[in-house]
Each structure stands twice: as C-alpha cells, then as structure tokens.
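Below is the record:
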Amino acid sequence: MSHRAPRSALRAFAGAIGLFVLASSAPASAQVAAGSAPSARSAPPAEGGTAGAPTVSAALRAALDDIAAGQPTRAVPVLQRLSAQGDAAASTQLALLHYHGQGVPEDDDQAYRLFLLAAGQGDPLAMFWLGRMNLLGHGPPRHSPDADQDAARWLFESARRGVPDGQYYLGLLFMAGTGVHRDEAEAMKWIRRAAGAGHVAAQAFLGER
C-alpha cells in the first residue's frame, strides 16, 4: 500500500467545495487494479469505460485480461513491447501499473514519463492521469510551481475528448478556482457532461445541489 499523500493545497480545495480529498476517491478511468489488493492509489474500473479510448488490439486485450485476473506480472512484457511499438493505450496501461505498483515497482516518475508518451500520441486517458498527478503532486509535478495550471490544462484536454473523469475533475477545479479562474457556470457545465456520461460522483454532486 502506498504511503504517499496529496499536497495540502488539495485538501483545502476539496474542503472548499464540500468533497472528500480527491486522492481518496477512486477515478472511474483507472483500468488496472481489478482482481488485486486495494490500496490508496488503486481504483477499480467501476464506471463503464472511457469515451474516446483508442481501439484495443488483441494483444492489449490479453494483457488487460491478465491484469483483471490478478496477474499483472504476465501483462508487463506485453505492454512494454506494445509501448515500444507506439501503442499509446499500452503505454497508458503500463504507466498505471507503475503508478499503482502492480507487477512492477511503484514508480511515479516512470508512470509520469509513460503517461506523457501516451498523451503525446493522443491518448485521452493518459491526459487525465497527467492532470491528476499534477493535482496531487505525484511524480515530477511535486517540484513544479505550476502544477495546478498544468493539472487544469491536462484535465481540459481529456475532458474535451470525452473522458468523464476529466470532465468531473475539471468541473471541480473551476468550482474551487484551482489552476483556473473560479467560474461556477463553467464548473457546472463540465460536471453535467460527466454526469450525462454516467459518472457516479458527478451525478451525486448534482444530486446534492
């Protein structure tokens, strides 16, 4: 289980809008961790996929099946090969394994490098995770004075590509004015989009207002 904690600024952000710290709430778009021991960083694929996700190859599907079966170590060499061949989705999944420490040592820096690689190849899920890591100060962003702005930029890129988690997190940033100018109307626009896509936390947020 990871012992890393989010930056204290995130606690203030979460408290300002009456929510739990984001690090303790599992994003829907975490594709790894099914069939494995839970941790503070892991998250089950609970909310029905990600809009805009690339087509999954047979080899990648087999690797994902291994992860879901609780055998991430078997998936690692397949994901490494596919990532080296330019498969952005494989790079994202390999990054998630490094981030959660499943089948490989937990390594935020390596996860961030792989997310950057996949995002540069257009993978919207990687863009979401770059935003989340910047927001939490995990990996290289822990040294960046512009992490909040970078979080907002990456979350926007994922949100406009249809990632419900990205839309929800971006909405929360606008609600709190974290990394962006505070704008409740803009916040509600993105949270409603996420809710419309079936995002459970976004739906709960709207139900409480």
Notes: DSSP finds ten helices and no strands in the chain. Residues 147-160 form the longest helix (14 residues). The chain has one domain: 9-22+54-207.
